């Protein structure tokens, strides 16, 4: 039997959430109205059918998406997501967020995102490899080291990036490692890329704590999502003295008021098929309960629209640092702002990942490897500078940091259009 998984019904729409913030920021800037459509409409939307032979001999057809939102600042950049909830509006929102994110941290990339609706937790390694190779084959005209450079996102990691690089390189008859970032180190991956997004979250959190006069050594945190972003964010926050009292994944949330041993949780997850299910030394609570714990810092690092108008009123954290893309729906913004919670928005807080991806691409292009120390120092500086710039705009215009971040991004992209012209 061949079939394509239907897209699930969703109450919140990340594309609408993105556009609502975009509209507010755009109105605050003195930019010509025609720029609105230029910035809003993605440059390219590609949808492909991907037949894949499953281990039992049956053939399943998956739908693969790649949206290139903008290439005005440089080649488009953005991860590939494997998740049962992938749909076109989500990928369009994620692609636009990549454009804004790269502009906020001032790196020379446009924005893109890809996704395949599938459940990698229910697929074998061989099935995932065949799916990734089929997707790459179908996207040969889209990807390219000077055109569109993918990377990992939810449900994908260094293995998938290695298969992408191999498939692309075979098609072009030479090794092209700069076509993708987030690769294994032996294939030209960069030191520090795995931890980079979580590290940027930590730098953002510490910077925001300084503004709020919160002492990290007396602070508590809850981290939703214990994948690439959440686990490294939790571990690095712990290193800086923050007591992480709750972590979570798809199996539920795990709470210990004395603090979770993050290293132990990471080791447990590795031995337990990537899941926290059964993790001892903690009480199991729900992912919703985690969001409303009495902590100083909340780090949503799983997926979109987990903070909504339904639960925002119950949030007790003083500070939210968004590790995930779009974890707060636009409907929750007003409630959160009225409560006086400082939010470091996704397009700033999680930009450490694409920043070190940029470093990986630079290293691939020059054929030279940087040390971890150099990478961490440079990415920390970029993250801190971007934080300070966005914070300063938020003070100047008396707007939340989210709107300030959109303002910084939109202005940069619109200014670039003005010089390049051609429309
Ligand atoms: N990997 C990266 O470098 C970057 C990722 N992001 C964003 O960060 C978020 C997480 O991405 P990764 O850590 O890469 O993904 P991942 O696949 O490594 O981890 C995702 C984690 O979230 C958990 N999760 C999934 N659905 C959940 C739910 N409904 N409730 C609670 N937990 C749930 C999973 O069990 C897993 O622990 C996504 O929004 C992604 O777009 C943003 C910037 C860069
Ligand atoms: O590392 C990259 O190029 C992109 C990572 C990503 O998908 C994101 O920042 O949301």
From TrEMBL:
It comes from the Bacteria. The record marks 153 as: Important for catalysis. Residues 190-421 form the Glutamate/phenylalanine/leucine/valine/L-tryptophan dehydrogenase C-terminal domain. Keywords: NAD, Nucleotide-binding, Oxidoreductase. GO terms for molecular function: glutamate dehydrogenase (NAD+) activity; nucleotide binding. NAD(+) binds at residues 197, 228. Pfam families: ELFV_dehydrog, ELFV_dehydrog_N. This is Glutamate dehydrogenase. It comes from Siphonobacter aquaeclarae.
């Amino acid at each position: 039997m061949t079939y394509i998984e239907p897209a699930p019904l969703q109450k919140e729409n990340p594309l609408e959430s993105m556009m609502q913030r975009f509209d507010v920021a755009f109105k605050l800037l003195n930019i010509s109205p025609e720029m609105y459509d230029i910035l809003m409409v993605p440059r390219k939307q590609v949808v492909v059918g991907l037949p894949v032979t499953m281990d039992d001999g049956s053939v399943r057809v998956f739908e693969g998406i790649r949206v290139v939102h903008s290439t005005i600042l440089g080649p488009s950049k953005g991860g590939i997501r494997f998740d049962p909830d992938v749909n076109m509006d989500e990928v369009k929102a994620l692609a636009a967020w990549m454009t804004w994110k790269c502009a906020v941290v001032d790196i020379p990339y446009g924005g893109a995102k890809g996704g395949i609706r599938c459940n990698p937790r229910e697929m074998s390694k061989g099935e995932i490899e065949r799916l990734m190779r089929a997707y790459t084959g179908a996207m040969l005209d889209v990807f390219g080291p000077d055109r569109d450079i993918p990377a990992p996102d939810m449900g994908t990691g260094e293995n998938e990036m290695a298969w992408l690089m191999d498939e692309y390189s075979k098609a072009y008859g030479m090794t092209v490692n700069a076509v993708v970032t987030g690769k294994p180190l032996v294939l030209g991956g960069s030191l520090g890329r795995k931890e980079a997004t979580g590290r940027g979250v930590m730098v953002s959190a510490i910077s925001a704590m300084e503004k709020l006069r919160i002492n990290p050594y007396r602070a508590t945190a809850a981290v939703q999502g214990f994948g690439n972003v959440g686990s490294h964010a939790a571990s690095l926050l712990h290193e800086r003295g923050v007591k992480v009292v709750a972590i979570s994944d798809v199996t539920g949330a795990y709470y210990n008021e004395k603090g979770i041993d993050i290293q132990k949780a990471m080791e447990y997850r590795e031995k337990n098929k990537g899941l926290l299910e059964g993790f001892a030394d903690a009480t199991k609570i729900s992912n919703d309960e985690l969001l409303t714990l009495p902590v100083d810092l909340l780090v949503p690092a799983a997926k979109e629209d987990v903070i909504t108008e339904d639960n925002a009123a119950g949030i007790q954290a003083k500070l939210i640092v968004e590790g995930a893309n779009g974890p707060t729906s636009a409907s929750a913004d007003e409630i959160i702002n009225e409560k006086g919670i400082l939010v470091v928005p996704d397009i700033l807080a999680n930009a450490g990942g694409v920043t070190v991806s940029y470093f990986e691409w630079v290293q691939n292009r020059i054929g030279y490897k940087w040390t971890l120390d150099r990478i961490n120092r440079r990415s920390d500086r970029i993250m801190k500078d971007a934080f300070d710039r966005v914070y300063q705009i938020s003070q100047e215009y008396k707007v939340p940091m989210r709107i300030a971040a959109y303002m910084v991004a939109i202005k940069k992209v619109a200014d670039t259009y003005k010089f390049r012209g051609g429309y």
